[in-house]
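Section: Multi-chain targets

For targets with more than one molecule, the full set of components is provided together so that the structure can be written out for the assembly as a whole rather than chain by chain. Components appear in the order listed by the source. The example entry contains two components.
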Amino acid sequence: MAEILKINDISVSYGSIRALSNVSMSVDEGAVVSLIGANGAGKSTLLKAIVGLEPLKNGSISFDGEVIAQTKHHGSLSTDLIARRGIALVPEGRHVFADMTVEENLDMGAFMVRDQELINKRKEEMYEFFPILGARKKQKTRSLSGGEQQMMAIARALMSSPRLLLLDEPGLGLAPLVVQDIFNKIRIINQENKVTVFLVEQNARLALRSSSYGYVLENGKIVLEDKGEALLMNERVQKAYLGA
Amino acid sequence: MGTLTLYMQYIVNGLTLGAIYSLIALGYTMVYGILKFINFAHGDILMVGAFIGLIIYNALTGGEAADPSAWTLIAFFISMLISMASCAVLGMVIERIAYKPLRNANRLAPLLSAIGVSFILSNGAAWIFGTQSRRFPYPFENTPIHIGGISITPHQIVMVVVSVAMMLLLTFFVNKTRMGKAMRACSLDQSTSMLMGINVNRVISLTFAIGSALAAVGGMLAAFDFRVYPSMGTMTGLKAFVAAVIGGIGNIQGAMIGGILLGILEAVGAPLLHIPNGMRDTVAFAVLIIVLLVKPDGILGKNEREKV
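Its structure, encoded as tokens over all components, is:
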């Protein structure tokens, strides 16, 4: 399969603190790839670097064969231009536009789509896919529960029909049944809508079960990588992340 | 005239004055909503708007000599459109040169830059046009109409009608159009807006353009009463800023309500409290202090926390 995302030896620092050191990884087109790791391992930083929200100290990131982010003096694309290439991020903590209605949030997700008929069609698809959003389309997003907001954020990201969907801790702070539901949806998005998914999760079991390939990040470094089911059986992963 | 009628008259006067405050307050509040920054040069934009409007109007009609006719009214609106467009460009240029390079600097830096721009605009106008004030001739017969003892001038009607029309247009824009919604999204969460493919720099430019165009309208409508001179924007701009704070800075409806409210409080409060004419401006600032003490976020300011 063709490589859609290639991360080549990147480092990111916050002042003197190194958040990512020489991380390399790749995501194949059509795959679900997960990145697991403890709190503070640098998982969110990696996703932010991909969408151009964190500058790189060294290395580069390519999407579909073209460099989208590299060191400052080489010049990177701004976040809005990276989004236009077809990468959508569902950020940690959802970041819904709380004062806007569900429908307006979806409109913002479709900001790059200029065809109003297509936007309406996609909105209907989202209301069908996430019925709770259809029932609440005129409500302020602020009034939604955590799980509903997460679905809202995923639906918003899908409105631009991205080629690569990045998910930052989609299960964080949600009830197990809701998390299960969200992961089922992610599988459908990948298999039926043919969207490549790269997700970051603390819930390693669930993440690895839904992934074809996985990476383990510790203290800003990739320490392990393998097929999803192989990582589930890996002794080190079991000890550190699966509580076995 | 009975006391009640007298106060009704004050309220009408306050309402028309307040409509102008609202128009100008919108510029402060929209910029604050996105950049969390008070554009202290905004008041001077209204002065530039009034000057441009006056020059175009005089060029089209011959100025004072022209008797009010249908043509002078049309000329007035033509000069208003040109003034709006010029101020929109001016607002974008100022943002680009004086504020954008300072966006990641200390919060005080853009504020000081804004004060600098304010001086450049007012002193520049004094240099070009001189410091004497000029009359803006009425483009229509300004004979008052009497309704139940209250007198209303056509000028007041034009002020209210134009202001309300502008506010309705703005409300439609931010709620129904793609760029308007993007503007609201940017004021709620800039990095998430970028993730949606929104070019935040363009949205900021647009915000300055719209705010400055509204200030131009406010400046021209105010010009009949206040005359046109280089420092005309200072006090009106400051009061419009007070109106924006009263309504809840960053909130568009708040600015509209705050402006009208301040206009009425000023017009009614001064005679009610026997404040001499030269001290009238104290009312606005007394109201500001009270609001800041009682409800620091303003009437429509939000105090709610985001759900995490």
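The mean pLDDT of chain A is 93.
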